[in-house]
């Protein structure tokens, strides 16, 4: 099994510095950007990745609408033993990156 490393993305670093969840930071940025552009607020698209088809469809929908996406995976779906999707965290990450 491959080694899982911590997410050190810029957005995660900013969230850690602000002491708030990544999702909250993203939502605040979306709202601020909409206000600055005098546009309606955006919605954060969330999907439950219970199959490869759902995971890929969520990515296509988010890309089509230029929207950020949040996956809400339960431990029963994605875990060290593979969950019922048979995905470890690394395998899920590889699928999303693909």
What structural class is derived from the secondary structure elements? mainly alpha
Mean pLDDT equals 82
Give the number of helices. Answer: 4
> Residue share in helices?
40-55%
Terminus-to-terminus distance: 19 Å
Instruction: Write down the overall geometry.
Output: globular
Taken in chain order, the helices and strands follow as: HHEHEH
What's the count of strands?
2
If strands are numbered along the chain, what order do they take across the biggest sheet? 1-2
Number of domains: 2
Biggest sheet details: 2 strands, parallel
Strand content: 5-15%
Low-confidence stretches: none
Radius of gyration: 15 Å
Secondary structure layout plus pairing:
Blueprint lengths: L9 H9 L3 H15 L8 E3 L4 H13 L4 E3 L17 H9 L1
Parallel strand pairs: 1-2
Q: What descriptive keywords fit this protein?
A:
98 residues, two-stranded parallel sheet, 6% strand
Describe the structure.
With 98 residues, the chain is mainly alpha-helical. It folds into two domains: 7-41; 43-98, no CATH class. Helix content is 47%, strand content 6%. β1, α3 and β2 form a beta-alpha-beta unit. The longest helix has 15 residues, at 22-36. It is globular and about 45 Å long.
